[in-house]
Amino acid sequence: MVDRYAIKINDRIFDELHLNISGKVSMANAGLVRSELIAVIKAHPLKNVVVDLGEVEYFDSAGAAVLSEMFRLSAELNNRLRLANVPPRIQKFLDLVDLEPGTPRGILEPITEPDLLTQIGDGLLKGVRTTQDIVTFIGAVVLAVASDVIRPGKFARDRGWKLIEKAGSDAVPIVMILGFLQGAVLAFQAAIQLRKFGANLFVADLVSVAICLEMGPLLTSIIVAGRSGAAYAAHIGTMQVNEEVDALRIMGIDPIRYLVSPRVLAVAVALPCLTLFSDLMGTIGGSVVATISLDMTATTYFDQVRKVLEVTDVAKGLVKSFVFGLEIAIIGCLRGFQVRGGAEGVGAATTSAVVTSVFVLTVTDAVFAVLFHYAPAW
Question: 88: domain CATH number?
Answer without folding.
Answer: 3.30.750.24
